[in-house]
């Protein structure tokens, strides 16, 4: 407001032909010059305040960015760790029963048919283990029993075939 009033006064002096007084107002120490300087100082102070605020926001933004990167890195590491643990336990839940089934195969290949896996699982591995246990039962009771009976000289053996394509039972009956 002071600057506007001083400028109006300079314009009025100029319009009235009082150029000397107008020049004095504009020169250092004059009303217009002092008002202009005050206005310029106000703009400079405002600019400096804006710069300080911008620098403070830049610092805060940098800190936020750095903490966000740290948090994201921690979350990523945690997710990776959880994924690895999940994969480890999932793999282990498959490989342990498979190892037990392979062990039963090994026993059977050495002629040991009396051992059972008895895996209590509701998935394909449990189905596979139950089938091996059933096959071991068949070998232990039917086949081995029939072989003992035949070895003892009793050939009156008659086993029921397990199906149309059963190759073991008809051979024992023969």
Protein topology:
Elements: H1 2-15, H2 19-26, H3 31-109, H4 124-151, H5 168-173
Helix pairs in contact: 1-2, 1-3, 3-4
Tag the structure with descriptive keywords.
single chain; mainly alpha
Q: What number is the mean pLDDT?
A: 91
Ends distance: 124 Å
- Gyration radius (Cα, Å) is 50 Å
- Tally of individual helices: 5
Helical content band: over 70%
Short description:
The protein is mainly alpha-helical and 174 residues long.
How would you characterize the overall build of this protein?
With 174 residues, this protein is an all-alpha fold. Helix content is 78%, strand content 0%. The chain contains 5 helices and no strands. The longest helix is centred in the middle third of the chain and has 79 residues, at 31-109.
């Amino acid at each position: 407001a002071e600057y506007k009033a001083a400028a109006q006064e300079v314009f009025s002096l100029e319009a009235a032909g009082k150029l000397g007084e107008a020049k004095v107002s504009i020169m250092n120490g004059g009303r217009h010059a002092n008002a202009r300087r005050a206005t310029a100082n106000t703009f400079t102070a405002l600019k400096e305040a804006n710069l300080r605020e911008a620098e403070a926001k830049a610092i805060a933004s940098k800190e936020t960015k750095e903490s966000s990167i740290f948090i994201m890195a921690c979350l990523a590491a945690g997710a990776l760790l959880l994924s690895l643990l999940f994969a480890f336990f999932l793999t282990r839940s498959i490989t342990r029963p498979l190892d037990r089934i392979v062990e039963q195969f090994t026993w059977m290949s050495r002629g040991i048919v009396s051992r059972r896996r008895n895996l209590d699982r509701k998935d394909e591995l449990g189905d596979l283990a139950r089938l091996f246990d059933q096959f071991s039962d068949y070998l232990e009771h039917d086949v081995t029993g029939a072989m003992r009976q035949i070895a003892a000289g009793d050939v009156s053996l008659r086993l029921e075939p397990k199906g149309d394509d059963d190759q073991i039972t008809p051979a024992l009956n023969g």
